[in-house]
Sequence to fold (316 residues):
Amino acid sequence: MNDILVLDKLSVCDDKRVLLKDVSLSLKENETIAFIGESGSGKTITLKSILAILPEDVKRASGSVYLCGEDIYSLKNSKKRSFLGQHIGFVAQNTVNYLHPLLRISTQMTDGYITYNGKKSKKEAYEKAYQLLLSVGITDPERVLSSYPSQLSGGMKQRVNIATALMMDPCLLLSDEPTTALDKVVQKQVIDLYLSLLSKRNISLVLVSHDLFFVSKIADKIAVFYSGQIVELGQKNEILNTPMHPYTKALLALSPSMDMDKGKPLQEIKGYISEEDRLRPGCPFFSRCPHATKKCESVVDQVFVSPTHSVKCTLI
Fold:
């Protein structure tokens, strides 16, 4: 299978900080990768780097992003916008603010499609939006298309966002925390929806999520982010069943389970991500790692546990 997405030693910074440092990964056709890690670890800024929509004060310092073989940062802005718009679908984290409150859903779903498909009529665009809403489980698409966002529930807005992201038949879908702020019943519906879409569509998915249950159900592989770096990367079962990096082990231990001792407090990772950790030449987890040695402060090794499982840790 061909690589749909390749990040090659991508580094991103602003005027004061290194936000991403040498991030490398690849994603093949019909493959799903999940980004996990604490808030501020670099997951969302990686998505924005793929979309080339970095904030004004943030820039790509080095490295490349290849989408379907094209180096997107080498494209002229006019072509880049069109290329990304036709190849990537994006489901934003905040469904409430992402949809424009003063535009009907039909307008928001069809405008981009008509713009990038000049030969398509408004009727064709409407019909496609109608069918996509049906495909994401909305049983009354005509009412939803004529509605404003305020007239829809959180779960309905999430389904609309997913359907909108699919309007251009993208080869890559980026989804940022799709179950955030949804109740457990709706979260389960969203998980089932993603599984159904992936089984029926020729599409690759990059998923950002704090929901390890969601990740365990949908991901093929997992990238563990910490302080702007990928500290562990591997197949889903490798990461969830045999984690190697101390941070990955600590992160997975945070997830509560039904068989845990009810009398004991929940696990925590002491400390926080500091700017000093981001600049450190060695392991960024040094200051919080209970197993760190003096060597870890200045040296970090890239260890390949298997052909698909890599860990940045001198202790392995």
